[in-house]
Design goal:
6-stranded mixed beta sheet; nucleotide-binding; 14 helices; EC 2.7.2.1; Nucleotidyltransferase, domain 5; 14 strands; metal-binding; kinase
Length: about 400
């Protein structure tokens, strides 16, 4: 079965075509600047050189038309006709409380996704545009929605509720939803495979550390707690997001600086995190380079980030009584030995013992300790596209 995976942003579109018989990527690409001057596709068919196609794209329908044309192109395509695409899996950021699993898309599902727009106003609208464009261009092809939030719908109520007046939850759905669910699900399942044990027997902590970052407690294959909350702002310090902050600080800043709601929202989401603390960059490679030169604020930003991750890991060990595996994934988690080492330093008291030599790995799957009596530590590159394709295949075959 060939499955096309679509991930739509407001002016971009990522895609992969996968042959699910062997779980092989046939082609992948990125569409940039949709609706903006300079629109282009960077398309790569496995075994062939990358091509860049520059052409005006006024909307997501035109972008998807060009993607499909690229996939069937006689020179640089991967398939002979669109009939070879048997299903499409769409990444949808927010499913609210309506979706605890991936679903075949129909009119009722579309209605429910639209009702979640107020929970993800920046993400769900372009996700919807991508689905609608695909339905128009491929009306007879099954479509599946895979939600970032769905994996976290198993979190117990005592963990996802906020200590606010209960009627605010009833009226507006104010609660923890969590994000990066597809990534946390994939790497926890892969960790169980690497350990050769049923995931139902395991307690795993997964650390998705990129420009956006979150930690998840996975017990028996189910999310039982995660660091992101009602929005992706809660939890860890991130590239530009503040993460956990005393709510009164926000009110204090608004009053002292005379900031509007939009301005303080911009401050917390785009000007804070390690960027705001260091005054240098949101890119951890830049911070590591500057810290090595003796820049104290760069070092402070790195230490604060790592300490926040460490605190969540400790909390989740307490929550589950023990952990069998600790997993690092995403851009920083996969590529920064220094960050992984700093996070694990001091966690020997809870049986997390990193091997510094084994830790010198970037961007590939590896175990970072050889002591079989301690918690297994892994680097596992995330593969959200494969997870989306697997869930799409399973639903369509049913």
């Amino acid at each position: 079965m060939n499955i096309l995976v679509i991930n739509c942003g407001s002016s971009s579109l990522k895609y992969q075509l996968l042959d699910m018989k062997e779980e092989q990527v046939l082609a992948k690409g990125l569409v940039e600047r949709i609706g903006i001057e300079g629109s282009r596709i960077k398309h790569t068919t496995t075994g062939k050189d990358q091509v860049t196609i520059e052409e005006p794209m006024k909307d997501h329908k035109k972008a998807l038309e060009m993607v499909l044309n690229a996939l069937v192109d006689s020179e640089y395509g991967a398939i002979k006709s669109m009939d070879e695409i048997e299903a499409v899996g769409h990444r949808v950021v927010h499913g609210g409380e309506k979706f605890a699993n991936s679903v075949i898309i129909d009119d009722e599902v579309m209605k429910a996704i639209r009702e979640c727009i107020e929970l993800a106003p920046l993400h769900n609208p372009p996700n919807i545009m991508g689905i609608e464009a695909c339905k128009e261009l491929m009306p007879n092809t099954p479509m599946v929605a895979v939600f970032d939030t769905a994996f976290h719908q198993t979190i117990p109520k005592a963990n996802y509720m906020y200590p606010l007046p209960y009627e605010l939850y009833e009226k507006y759905g104010i609660r923890k939803y969590g994000f990066h669910g597809t990534s946390h699900k994939y790497v926890s399942q892969r960790a169980a495979e690497l350990l050769g044990r049923p995931i139902e027997e395991l307690n795993i902590v997964t650390c998705h550390l990129g420009n956006g970052a979150s930690v998840c407690a996975v017990q028996g294959g189910k999310s039982v707690e995660t660091s992101m909350g009602f929005t992706p702002l809660e939890g860890l310090a991130m590239g530009t997001r503040s993460g956990d902050v005393d709510p009164a600080v926000i009110l204090f800043i608004m009053e002292k600086e005379g900031l509007s709601f939009d301005e303080v929202n911009e401050l917390l989401n785009k000007k804070s995190g390690v960027l705001g603390l260091s005054g240098i960059s949101s890119d951890f490679r830049d911070l590591e380079e500057e810290a090595a030169k003796g820049n104290e604020r760069a070092l402070l930003a790195l230490q604060l980030f790592c300490n926040r991750v460490k605190k969540y890991i400790g909390a989740y060990v307490a929550l589950m009584c023990r952990i069998d595996a600790l997993v690092f994934t995403a851009g920083i988690g996969e590529n920064s030995p220094a960050v992984r080492e700093h996070i694990c330093n001091g966690l020997e008291c809870i049986n997390i013992k990193l091997d510094k030599e084994l830790n010198q790995v970037r961007g590939k799957e590896a175990r970072l300790n050889s002591d079989l009596t301690s918690t297994a530590i892994f680097v596992i590159p995330t593969n959200e596209e494969l997870m989306i394709a697997r869930e799409t295949k399973e639903l369509v075959e049913k």
